[in-house]
Amino acid sequence: MKPSRFTVKGRLYALFAVVVSVLVAVGGIGLTGVERTDDALRQVFEGRAKALQRISSIDELVAKTHFAVSDAVLDPSASKTEAVLAASASNLQAIDALLREYRAYPLEADERVLAERFAADWALLRDKGFAPTLGYLKANNLSEAQWVVTQALEPNAKQVKTETARLRALQLESAQREYDRAQTLAHTVQVLVAVCIVVGIAIVAALCWAMASELFRQLGGEPAYAADIANAIAEGDLSVQVQVKPGDTHSVLHAMQSMRERLAVMIGTIQRAAAGISHATNEIASGNADLSARTEKHATGIQQTANSMEQLAATVRANADHAREANVLAGQASSKAEHGNEAATDAISRMHSLSERSQKIRSITSVIEGIAFQTNLLALNAAVEAARAGQSGRGFAVVAQEVRALAHRSSEAAKEITGLINDVTSEVDGGSATVERAGSTIVDMLGSVKRVAALIDEISHASDEQSSGIAQINRAVSQMDEVTQHNALLVQKAAAAAVELADEAAALRDAVAIFRVAA
C-alpha cells in the first residue's frame, strides 16, 4: 500500500499542534489582557484612588486646621489654645507626610506641574499662615494672630483649597481615562480571543474533516464494513468477497482483498501439502519401524560377533604369549648350541694339538730307538774289545753287557711307547674325526636352531601383529556395536519423531481445514 504524504500520526500531531497553538494564543492574549487590565487597575488604585485619598485627606486636614486656628483666634481660651496647638502641629506633620507620599509616586507632566504648585502654595500657607498664627496663639498675642489670619492665612487657605480641587478633578479625569483604556483593552482582548477561538475552531474542523476524508480514503469504506471483512477472514472464511471501489489500489480494503486472495492460494497449497505430508509421514513411520527392527537384529548379530572376536582375541593373545615363550626358549637353545659349537671347536683343536704332540713323541721315540740301537752296537763293540783284551777287559765286558741290556730294554720300551703312541694317535685320530663330526652336527644343529628361533620370532611378531589387528578389529566391532546401538536408538527416535510428525501433520491438516476456500 502506498503511504500517504501525511500519515494519520502526522495529522494527529498537526491537529494537536493547532489546538495547542489556539490554546496558547487564547491563553497568551487572555494573560496579556489580564496583565494589562491589572496594570490599569493598579494604576487607578495606586496612582489615582490613593492620590485622591491623600489629596482629600490633605484638604480635610487643611480645612480642619484652618477652622480650629480661626476658632481659637476668635474665641480664645487656654485649654482650647493648647488643644489647637497640639492638634495643629500634628495635622501639619500629617499633611507634610501625605504630600511627600503623593509626590513620591510617579506623576504625569501636567499633574507634576499642579503638584509642584500645590506644594509651593501649601509651603506658603504653612510657613506664612499657620506657623505665625500658632506662634502668636502660643504667645497669646491675639491681635497679631487675627491680623495674620485675615491677611495671610485666609488667602493662602483659599488658594490651597483651589489647588486641591484642581488635583481632585485631575485625578478623577485621569481615573476616567484609565478606566476607558482598560475598557478598550478588555474589548480588544475579547475580540482577539473570539477571533482566535473562531479561527482555531475553523482550522480544527478543517483538519478533522481532512483527517476523516483521508481515513475514509485509506480504509476504502466504512470502518464497520472493514471490521466485518477482517472478522470473516479471522474466522477462516476465505470465500468472502471484498467490495472495493473502482480504481482503489491503496486502501485497507484493497489490501484485505489481496490478503484474502493470497491467503486462499496459500491455505489451499498448505492443505494439499498437509495431506501429502500426512501420507509421507505415515510411510516414513512404517519404514522407520521396519528399519528399527532390522537395526536391532543387526545390533544383536554385531554383539555376538563382538563376543566371538573377544574370545578369538584372547586365544591369539595366548598364542602370542606362547610364541614369545618359545622364542625365548629357542634363543636359549641357540645360545647353548653356540656354546656346544665352541666346546666342540675347542675339543677338535685340542685333538689336533694332541695328535701333533703324539707325532713329536713318535719322533722322540724313534730317536730313542736309534740311540738304543747305537748303544747296543757300541756295547757289542765294547764286548768285542773286552774279549780281545782278555782278563783286563772283563769288567768292561760286564759293563758293556749291562749297557746292552739297558739298550735292549730302552729299545723295547721305545717300541712299547711307539705302539702305545700309535694306539693313542689312532684313538686321537678317531676321536678327532668323531669330534669333527660332532662339531659339524652341532653347527648344523646351531643353524637349525637359529632358523627355528627366527621362525619362532617371526611367528611371535606375526602373533603380536595378529593380536594387535584382532584387538583393532575387536575395537572396531565394539565401535560398530556402539554405533549400531546408537543407530538403533536414533532409529527408534526417528520412528517416534515420524509418529509425532504424522500427528503434527494430522493436526496441521485439521488446523487448515477450518479455512473455507472458494471452489
TrEMBL record:
Q: Where are the transmembrane segments?
A: 12-34, 191-212
Record bears the keyword Ribonucleoprotein: no
Query: Where does the record place the Methyl-accepting transducer domain?
Result: 273-502
The record gives the membrane topology as: Multi-pass membrane protein
The main place the protein resides is: membrane
What biological-process GO terms show up in the record? Answer: chemotaxis; signal transduction
Q: List, alphabetically, the Pfam families matched.
A: MCPsignal (PF00015), TarH (PF02203)
Which GO terms label this protein's molecular function in UniProt?
Answer: transmembrane signaling receptor activity
Family (UniProt): Belongs to the methyl-accepting chemotaxis (MCP) protein family.
Q: What is this protein called?
A: Methyl-accepting chemotaxis protein
